[in-house]
Design a protein that fits this description.
The protein is an alpha/beta fold and 236 residues long. The chain has seven helices and six strands; from the N terminus they run αβαββααβααβαβ. It has a single domain, classed as Rossmann fold, CATH 3.40.50. Helices cover 42% and strands 18% of the residues.
Length: 236
Amino acid sequence: MKTIIIISMLVIGGISSAVYLSGKSTITEISVLRDITDAQLSNPKAGEIIPLYDFETIKWNGGIFRFTNISNVSFNPSKEAKIGTANEWLSNEYDREKEVKNFDSDVSKILNDAGSDSIGKKHSSIYMPVAMELNRLSKSKASKRILIVYSDLMENSPEFSFYNAKTLVLLNSNYEVSRTKLNDLLPLQNLKGIDVYLLCQPSDVVGDSNFKTVSGFYKKVLEGKGATVTISANLL
């Protein structure tokens, strides 16, 4: 009798451990910033962003999606979509697949709706929205944190303008002076563990040259705070 009880306890314990280990899910948080101050050839696409959550491999993980326009002012409204984590052993697979589809639809709708936003502003506040979103992500408990910025990064605000030839030259010749000016606007927190994508498809040679200069400067600044930075025309 004692042997049967011991075996039963071992079996139950083994099942409980399996449930616990298999049910350990993670969260991916993705924030997208899209520049509407000038026409860009590289814009957010749901088909490129949704696969980053990897629900096809692990449908039980959670996801957070956040979208904000970059405009001529520092503070802009955001839209969000969320899906919580689920335990593989304690959840209904059909219901979970439905939840994932709903999340995908919410993300797609946010991005599709953003396509109707008016484009073109005389000024552009780039650094502040980027810094605020990175500082917010630095406090996130998500296992995977990603910031995707669709912009030429050409700041044109009263405090700082990359359209000023002297300022643009300073990005290369005196990195620390430029970094300090931006840091005075808003200091960056520790960005370790955050992946940053700086995406732009310049329309001409001048735009290409400017983007190389400014994105290279941002890469140095952000990686100096611990982030991993990728510069490209799109996510693919």
